[in-house]
UniProtKB/TrEMBL annotation:
Annotated family: Belongs to the 3-hydroxyacyl-CoA dehydrogenase family.
Protein name: L-gulonate 3-dehydrogenase
Keyword entries, A-Z: Cytoplasm, NAD, Oxidoreductase, Phosphoprotein
EC number from the UniProt entry: 1.1.1.45
Annotated organism of origin: Penicillium arizonense
Length: 339
C-alpha cells in the first residue's frame, strides 16, 4: 500500500550522475522519486545498477527482510518510472535535472518543465558548470523560474562524495537556498539505519555564478598544470600521481588549501607563509602551463598514453576499490567536521 511522502521528487535524466543521485535521495525516508528518461533501457539500468550503490538499510527498504530492493521500492511507490515528462513533474515538490551539459538543451528542458510543474515546486539542476541564470534565460519570467531555479551540483559519485555546491542565480529567493541546504544536510550517509547517522553531506553556497563553479575550477586548474608538466616531459603521469597522493592529497583531505598553508606559516599563519615564500610562489605562478584542450594535441596524446600504460583500463572492480577508499577517507574526515 502506497503513502504520500513529504518530498516528491522528479528526477530527470538517469545517466551516471542521475543513478547516483537516485540512491542519494532514497536514503531519506521521507522521499518518493519519479524518474523520467526517454531511453528505453531506464528500468534495466535501475535494476542492474541501483542495488550495488544503494545500501540495504531500513530507511531504504522499509523492511530488513526484503531481498529485492528495487521490486520493493516499486511496490511501495517510493520509486516510479514516468512515461512522459508531464507525468514526472506534475505532482513533484522537487524537480531535479541531469540532462547533457549543453546550455540550449537545458533551456529547452526547463521551458517544457514549466508547462506542467507546480507553481511552488523547487527547481534544481545538477549541472557541473552551467549557471542557473543561463539555464532559465528563455523561460517566461511570469513563471517565477528566476526565484526558484538554482544549481545543486554534486561531486561525483554523489552517493559517496559529501560536497553539494549550491549556486543560486541573481534572482533566486533566499528561502529556496535555505531549503536545498537543509534538504541535503539531512540526507544520511552510506550505511545508515533508519536514517540515523551523523552529518554526511556538506552543502556549500556560492555567492556568485562562475563557469564551472568552485570544485571543478580548482580540480581543472590542477589538471591543466598536471597535463602541462607531463606534456613537457618534466614527470611521468604515474609519478605525478604519486607526488599528489604523497603530499597535497593527504594534507588537503584533512585541512583544505587555506587551513593547510595557515598551519604552514607557523605562528604568523598564512600571512607569514605568503610573505616568506612570495618570490617562489610568484615564480611558479608566472611559469604555470597555459595549454588549451582544443590546441596542440601532443600533450594530450602523451597524457592519455602514459595514463593507460600506468593503470590499464578502468573496470568495475577498480572503480569499486576506489569507492571503498573514498568511503574510508570521508569517514576519517567526519571526525574533524564537528570540531
Amino acid at each position: 500500500m502506497s503513502k504520500e511522502y513529504p518530498h516528491q521528487i522528479a528526477l530527470l535524466g538517469l545517466g551516471t550522475i542521475g543513478l547516483s543521485m537516485l540512491a542519494m535521495h532514497l536514503r531519506r525516508p521521507d522521499t518518493s522519486i519519479t524518474v523520467y528518461d526517454p531511453r528505453p533501457d531506464t528500468e534495466t539500468q535501475i535494476r542492474t545498477n541501483l542495488p550495488s550503490i544503494l545500501e540495504f538499510t531500513a530507511s531504504a527498504t522499509a523492511s530488513g527482510s526484503e531481498t529485492n530492493i528495487v521490486d520493493h521500492l516499486f511496490k511501495i511507490s517510493r520509486l516510479k518510472l514516468a512515461p512522459t515528462l508531464q507525468e514526472a513533474v506534475t505532482k513533484a515538490t522537487i524537480i531535479q535535472e541531469q540532462s547533457p551539459e549543453v546550455t540550449v538543451s537545458k533551456q529547452a528542458l526547463w521551458k517544457e518543465v514549466m508547462r506542467f510543474a507546480k507553481h511552488d515546486a523547487h527547481l534544481w539542476s545538477s549541472s557541473s558548470g552551467i549557471a542557473a541564470s543561463a539555464q532559465g534565460a528563455t523561460c517566461d519570467p511570469a513563471d517565477g523560474v528566476g526565484e526558484r531555479l538554482l544549481v545543486a551540483h554534486p561531486f561525483n559519485p554523489p552517493h559517496i562524495m559529501p560536497l553539494v555546491e549550491v549556486v543560486p542565480g541573481p534572482e533566486t529567493a533566499v528561502e529556496r537556498v535555505e531549503f536545498v541546504k537543509g534538504y541535503f544536510g539531512g540526507i544520511p550517509g552510506p550505511g545508515s539505519v533508519d536514517g540515523q547517522t551523523g552529518a554526511h553531506y556538506r552543502p556549500v553556497t556560492l555567492h556568485k555564478e562562475v563557469p564551472g563553479f568552485v570544485g571543478n575550477r580548482l580540480a581543472f586548474a590542477l589538471l591543466r598544470e598536471a597535463c602541462s608538466l607531463v606534456g613537457e616531459g618534466v614527470v611521468s603521469a604515474r609519478d605525478l600521481d604519486a607526488i599528489v597522493t604523497a603530499s597535497v592529497g593527504p594534507r588537503w583531505a584533512g585541512s583544505g588549501v587555506f587551513e593547510s598553508y595557515h598551519a604552514g606559516g607557523g605562528e604568523g599563519g598564512i600571512g607569514a607563509f605568503l610573505q616568506k615564500l612570495e618570490p617562489t610562489i610568484q615564480d611558479v605562478w608566472d611559469d604555470l602551463g597555459q595549454i588549451g584542450i582544443q590546441g596542440d594535441q601532443a600533450w594530450r596524446e602523451m597524457v592519455v598514453r602514459q595514463t593507460e600504460e600506468a593503470y590499464g583500463p578502468s573496470t568495475a572492480e577498480s572503480r569499486k576499490k576506489k569507492e571503498e577508499m573514498l568511503r574510508e577517507v570521508i569517514e576519517m574526515q567526519k571526525k574533524t567536521w564537528a570540531s
